[in-house]
Design goal:
single chain; 10 helices; mainly alpha; Hypothetical protein af1432
Length: about 180
């Protein structure tokens, strides 16, 4: 299986934009924490999270096909499939919990980071109630597709508030590393 080190090297090679790089890392951290909670493979889930947007900066018109093909060439079909399915409008079936979790964690993790960045205390004291209030405002983080977030939550079968709290806790535990 692809290692964390190999995945990080791919990420560092493909993404120079610091915001996108941090987004991939935050999704990886959240995915890893969910794997630990659910008794799944933390390394596999982390790698899936950090590589899900690895080709977006260099190949936005081909995303996610470049990273998916690279992973398939490496024999990482399960990770490649999850990445190929992390947007519902691509019409890729959700076959595993890994597929569903990536969809449930990707956009919402980015949204929570955006919510934290506008606060003077960043992640400290951030609550699900505050995140949900911002979520209802379509002008805040307008690029986040709320329907994608909700479809991921539905597929993963998690409670919206609990899911937000889980992500916040993971980000808070890594806030120093993430500069949040």
């Amino acid at each position: 299986m692809i290692t964390r080190k190999q995945a990080t090297e791919i990420l560092d090679e493909m993404i120079k934009n610091s915001s996108l790089h941090r987004h991939c890392r935050t999704v990886g951290m959240v995915m890893e924490a969910y794997a630990e909670k659910l008794g799944k493979n933390p390394e596999e889930w982390y790698v899936t999270g950090i590589l899900h947007d690895a080709d977006y900066e260099l190949y936005p018109d081909k995303h996610p096909n470049v990273i998916v093909e690279k992973l398939r060439e490496m024999g990482e079909e399960k990770i490649a499939h999850a990445i190929s399915a992390h947007y519902t409008k691509w019409n890729v079936p959700y076959e595993t919990l890994l597929d569903k979790a990536l969809l449930a964690c990707d956009e919402l993790t980015g949204f929570i980071v955006a919510a934290a960045q506008i606060r003077p205390t960043k992640l400290e004291g951030l609550t699900a109630k505050s995140v949900k209030k911002k979520f209802k405002n379509p002008k805040f983080a307008a690029g986040v597709e709320r329907d994608e977030v909700m479809k991921g939550i539905e597929l993963m079968e998690v409670d919206f508030t609990e899911h937000i709290n889980f992500i916040i806790a993971v980000l808070q535990a890594n806030s120093e590393d993430l500069a949040l």
